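hiii, so i know i said id send this last week but things got crazy w the move. better late than never?? heres the sequnce for the chain we talked about at the cafe, plus the structure i predicted for it. fair warning i was half asleep when i ran it
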Amino acid sequence: MLEVRDLRVSFRTEQGLMQAVDGVSFDVKEGEILGVVGESGSGKTVSLLAVMGLINDPNAVIAGSIKYRGRELVGLPPRDMRNLRGREIAMIFQDPMTALTPVYTIGWQIAEQIRAHEKIGKAAARARAIDLLAEVNMSDPSEAVDRYPHQLSGGMRQRAVIAMALSCNPALLVADEPTTALDVTVQAQILDLVRKLQRNHQSAVVFITHDMGVIAEIADRVMVMYAGRIVESGSKRDLFLDPRHPYTRALLDSIPPLEGKRPRRLRSIPGSPPSLLDRPAGCSFGPRCPKHFDRCAAQPTLTGTSHAAACFLVAPP
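okay and structure toks below
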C-alpha cells in the first residue's frame, strides 16, 4: 500500500541544514499495524507528516520517494494531495485539543470533512457524524455531537478526533501518539478502539509512539528510529524476543518486565539524543552505547531482510 524509499527531510536554519529524517525506507502492507517507536526527536512524526504532505515550512527540503498504491506523493500538486488526504490517508493527531477548532462543535467539524470529500447534504453529514461518534464509543453521541471541544474530557476529545479521521473510511490511518496525554485506563480503551476500528474498516495503521509497552499491545511490525534513521525493523515477536540493536535493547530495558522478578529500578539510557545540527560521525547512538567499539566510527547500514538492524554487532564482517 505505502512504499517509502530513501526519504530525507531537512530544514534550513541559521545554524545550517538540519537533517531531521536521513534516508528512511519502509513499507506498509494492507491491513497491518506498523509501530514506529523512538525517543522524542528521532524523526517519527516528521517522516509521517511528509507522507501526509503536511510539512509546509518554506525552509523544508523533502527528497526521496513516497508511493501510495503506486502513486508518487513527493511533488504532488497541493490540490491533488488535499483530495487524497482525509479520504484515502488520514491522521489522528497527538493533542486533540489543538487538533480541534475550539469555536466549532465536534459534530460540525466531522461533518465538514465528510462534505469536503463527498457530495452529501448537511443533515446526512450530521447523521454520519453521530454514527461515527457511536462507533468510537462516545457516550450519548446524539447529544455529544453538539458539544464544543472544551466541554469534553481528554479521552472524549481523542475519540472525536478518531471519528473525524475515520469519517471517509481511509485505507491508511496514521496515529501520532494518540494515547500520550491520557491516563492508563483511557489509554487502554483507545488502543482497543484503534484495533477494533482497524479490523472493522480493514485499514492499515501506522502507530507512532515512544512507549514500547504500547508497541507490545498493538503493533504487527515495528520500526525503531533514532536520530532520523531506522536502526532496527522487524516483526513484533522478533524485536521483543531477539532485539539486535543496543538502542532497541535499551528501550526494552526501560519498561517493567512482564515476567520474572521486578527490578528495584528500571534502567535508563545515559546521555541525550544528539543534535541534528551536529550529528556525531558514524553510528549516531555510539556516544550512548555501552557496546561502542572502533568500527562504530563508520556509519552502519541496515542489514537483514525480515529482521534488520543497523549495527556492526550483527552485520557481517
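btw The radius of gyration is 20 Å. thought thatd interest u
miss u guys!!
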